[in-house]
Design goal:
The structure holds two protein chains of two kinds. Chain A is mainly α. Chain A has one domain. Helix content of chain A is 68%, strand content 0%. Chain A is built from four helices and no strands. The longest helix of chain A is centred in the first third of the chain and has 32 residues. Chain B has a two-stranded antiparallel ribbon with strand order 1-2. The relative contact order of chain B is 0.24. Classes of the chains: A mainly alpha, B mainly alpha. The interface between A and B is large, with 73 and 74 residues.
């Protein structure tokens, strides 16, 4: 039948490499969250805590550059946020890879679609004023 | 409660939620928010933020465990992600101005819907129909193997499916869930995509949708690392264990138990919302 796609090449070498990268990033994100958690509990494990009222996190735990800077200074909460940021980056990278796949196929319509999705995803991370 | 006690209890609960959710095929997200809000008295915004992160974790973890997307159609997925990510951002912004009471009630209704849809019989794919003009222009077509041969399919009613997907994204951003049930509804019922393809494509889309809302939550300070940390690790480990277990589990009975659990949680969320216990 004309115009019907065949199954996509899930086992091509490029696809396997991309899957491996995404898997590594997921594991890395999990480990960073875990190590931040260990730091947090080792330092403040016995502190009383309540999340009943919503205060909003400070900018140091909201914006990408400040989270990265804080994490490298060893702030436990910033390390957790960095892991979370890596986790958020995983699906973004997936979209990027799918887009690159269409670029290789010269499927311009879907390259544009991927760029739109990436732009929406990217815009979400820019600090929004309340 | 000390930080350590919260982390241990919330982590254990999330592990259990991720395990059951992955066995039932619904993801752990739907039970995380009720668990945190009703069980640990966490503010609903923090609970939704933590749940979103766990949804991304489950989706990424499942893809890392299986390594392939099955019969997912990446054109359909990518195209509809425009709708879900825009909807997700919209939902994330709405969550500030929506009173907690209403978030609880909407959440309860979505839980009741997910419970009933997870028990519903899967509709068999309808006979192949020619793609309508928009689906043909966007090449939202494909084939999937069944009974040893490739069966062609094509998407239909694209604008309706696209709008429903925007709604699924909004719910995801407002409630911190993957809204897999609404995504499958949009693709199955509205766009008439075969069930095998719609389920796999929805899994592929869930992480991307949640990432869009999580980005907004993070940059607006709604993601509390102390809350998100045990939830993320718990759900991630739980869903990986669940995926391992899936091969030799009696999925049918797990599905029924999970459906009953989320229906009860849904009723309790609605009750708490209506009586003003959450505000």
């Amino acid at each position: 039948m004309k115009g019907v796609e065949i199954c996509e090449p899930y086992d091509s070498p490029i696809h396997r490499t991309m899957t491996a990268i995404l898997r590594l990033l997921t594991i890395l994100a999990g480990l960073v969250v875990l190590s931040g958690g260990v730091l947090l509990l080792a330092r403040h494990g016995d502190a009383d805590t309540s999340f009943l009222s919503f205060a909003g996190e400070p900018t140091s735990l909201r914006l990408v550059p400040e989270i990265v800077a804080g994490a490298f200074q060893g702030h436990a909460l910033a390390v957790v946020q960095l892991g979370i940021l890596l986790l958020i980056a995983t699906p973004m990278l997936r979209v990027l890879f799918v887009g690159i796949g269409y670029l290789i196929e010269r499927d311009w319509l879907y390259v544009v679609v991927a760029v739109i999705v990436l732009a929406v995803l990217g815009s979400s991370l820019i600090g929004h004023k309340l | 409660m000390t930080q350590l006690e919260f982390a241990a209890l919330a982590g254990a609960g999330s592990l259990f939620a991720g395990f059951l959710g992955s066995l039932a095929g619904l993801g752990g997200g739907v039970v995380i928010v009720p668990m945190l809000v009703l069980g640990f008295h966490v503010d609903v915004h923090y609970a939704v933020g933590a749940s979103l992160i766990s949804v991304i974790g489950t989706s990424a973890g499942a893809q890392a465990a299986h390594g392939k997307e099955g019969f997912s159609n990446s054109r359909i997925g990518l195209f509809l992600e425009i709708a879900t990510t825009l909807g997700a951002i919209c939902g994330a912004f709405l969550s500030t101005s929506t009173p907690t009471k209403w978030i609880a009630i909407i959440f309860g209704l979505v839980l009741l819907y997910s419970a009933s849809s997870s028990l519903r019989k899967k509709r068999h794919a309808s006979a192949y129909q020619r793609p309508d003009s928009l689906a043909a222009k966007l090449r939202l077509v494909g084939t999937y193997p069944e009974g040893g041969q490739l069966v062609p399919y094509s998407a239909r009613r694209v604008p309706l499916g696209f709008s429903l997907m925007f709604g699924a994204g909004t719910l995801s951003g407002l409630l911190g869930i993957g809204s897999g049930a609404v995504k499958v509804l949009a693709m199955d019922e509205a766009m008439q995509i075969p069930f095998k393809v719609s389920t796999a494509t929805s899994n592929f889309m869930i992480g991307v949708t949640a990432a869009a809302s999580a980005g907004v939550y993070l940059s607006r300070g709604y993601i509390n690392p102390a809350v998100a940390m045990p939830v993320t690790i718990g759900v991630l480990v739980g869903s990986l264990l669940g995926a391992r277990f899936l091969a030799n589990a009696r999925v049918k009975s797990v599905r029924i138990v999970f459906a009953i659990v989320i229906a009860l949680l849904g009723a309790e969320m609605i009750f708490n919302g209506l009586t003003g216990k959450l505000s």
